[in-house]
Amino acid sequence: EAALNVDRIRRDFPILDREVYGRPLVYLDNAASAQKPRQVIQAMNDVMEGCYSNVHRGVHKLSQESTDLYEGARERIAGFINADSADEIVFTRGATEAINLVANGFGQTRLQPGDEIVISWLEHHSNIVPWQLLRDRLGIEIKVVPIDEQGNFLFEDYLQLLGPRTKLVAVTHVSNALGTVTPLPEIISAAHERDVPVLVDGCQAVPHMKVDVQALGADFYAFSGHKLYGPTGIGVLYGRKDLLNSLPPYQGGGEMISSVTFERTTFKQAPHRFEAGTPAIVEAIGLGAAVDYMNALDFEALAAHEQALLTYAENRLSEIEGLTIFGQARNKAAIVSFTLDAAHPHDIGTIVDRAGVAIRAGHHCAQPIMDRYGVAATVRASFGLYNTRAEIDTLTDALHQVKELFG
Ligand code: PMP
C-alpha cells in the first residue's frame, strides 16, 4: 500500500506557506474548519471569471454552463458517498441547515406528542437543539444514549432506549469533541429492525474515511463542505429518495416549485423542492472540486496517515505531566481533546498561537460532553491530511512552554 504523499499534498494548500508571529503556521483546527487546496480555490475562481451566471432558469450560454457545473458537482458528491442518484443530494448551507431541514419536515408531518427521538451524548449542538425546538413545539421527547468514561457509545443502553414511540434516531458518525467513531452499522441495523429511520451527522467523518451511505444503510446523512477542504456556505443533506419526497418543503420560493397560482402551488421533487431561491452556486462547484480532490487520494493511505498522527500525538502529549486526554474510544478519528493542570484552555490556546500553532479551546459546541467530564472547556487538536509529526512536535514544545510559564 502506498503511503500518502504529504509533501505533495502540502504544496496544494497555499495557506500552509504562511507564517504566524514569524513562525510557520501549524494548523491543527481542522475539526472546526479545514484549509482549502488550490484546486478548490481555482475551481471557484474559474466559475466567477469564466461562466458565472444564475442556474436553472437561463436560456443563455452562461446559465447553461453554470447549471452544468452546479449539477455536475451534485453528481460527483453523490458518487463520493455512493448515493443511488444525484436526486438524493440536497445542497444546504451546511450540516446545521441539513439537520434543521429534516427536523422541520418530521415536525410537520411525522411527529405526535409523546413520540421520541433518540440522540447520543456525543452530539454537536446542531444535532441537539433542532430536536429541542421540536420538543418544545410539539411535546415530543428526546432520549439520549450515554457514553462510557472512554467516550464509547453505549450500545446496550441504546437498544433499551429504542421503543414503540421512537420515530427517528439522529446520531453522529464521529464526535467532534472526542473523536469517537460510533458503531453506525449496528446502530442503523437495530433501528431498521424496528422500522425507525436514522439521520447521521457525518460532518467529522467524511474528511477522514470513505463513507458509503448505501452500505451503512443511512436514511439521511448530513455534512458541511468547509470541513471537507471545500468552501463555507455549502453542505449536503443526503436522503433516500422516497423519504426525501415524503417530506414537505423547508422554505418556499423560486426554483422549488412546479407551478404557482395564488390559489395553489405544486412543488418539484427532491432535491429541488428543498432548494428555494438562488443557491450557493460557486460554493457548490467548489465543494465538487473538493470531492474530486478527495477522490484522487487513496483513502486507506489517508486513514493510515491520520491514525499514525493520532497515535503519535497521544504518545507525545502523554509525556506532559498534568495533561489529561478526554476520549479514548476503541475507534477514534484524528482528534485529541485535553486539558493541562497548569493553565486554562483559552490561555493554552493563546500561548501556543504565539508559536504558530492553531488549536481550538472551548466547549466545541458539545457542552453535554464537557458536563459529562466535569470540565468547562478543553483544548482540541484535530488533524487533517496535510499534518505532520513535526507539527505535533511543535505543539508539544509549545505546551512545555505553557507549563514553564504557568508552572
Ligand atoms: N456536527 C458536527 C459533528 C460538527 O463538528 C459540526 C461543526 N463543528 C456541525 C455538526 C455543524 O456544522 P456547520 O456549523 O458547518 O453547520
Give helix % range.
25-40%
What binds here, in terms of ligands, is:
4'-deoxy-4'-aminopyridoxal-5'-phosphate
Secondary structure class reads alpha/beta
- Strand content is 15-25%
What's the arrangement of strands in the largest beta sheet? 4-10-9-8-7-5-6
- Measured between the Cα atoms of the first and last residue, the distance is 45 Å
Give the overall shape, derived from the CA principal axes: globular
The total beta strand count reads: 17
Radius of gyration: 22 Å
Main beta-sheet strand count, sense and barrel state: 7 strands, mixed
Low-confidence stretches: none
Mean pLDDT: 97
Continuous helix count: 14
Domain Aminotransferase class V: 26-395
EC number: 2.8.1.7
Protein name: Cysteine desulfurase
Cofactor: pyridoxal 5'-phosphate
List the helices and strands and how they pair.
Blueprint: H1 6-11, E1 19-20, E2 23-24, E3 26-27, H2 38-50, H3 61-80, E4 89-92, H4 95-109, E5 116-120, H5 129-138, E6 141-145, H6 155-161, E7 166-172, H7 184-193, E8 198-201, H8 213-216, E9 220-224, E10 235-239, H9 241-246, E11 257-260, E12 265-267, H10 281-295, H11 299-318, E13 323-326, E14 335-340, H12 345-354, E15 357-358, E16 360-362, H13 367-373, E17 378-382, H14 389-406
Parallel strand pairs: 3-15, 5-6, 5-7, 7-8, 8-9
Antiparallel strand pairs: 1-2, 4-10, 9-10, 11-12, 13-14, 14-17, 16-17
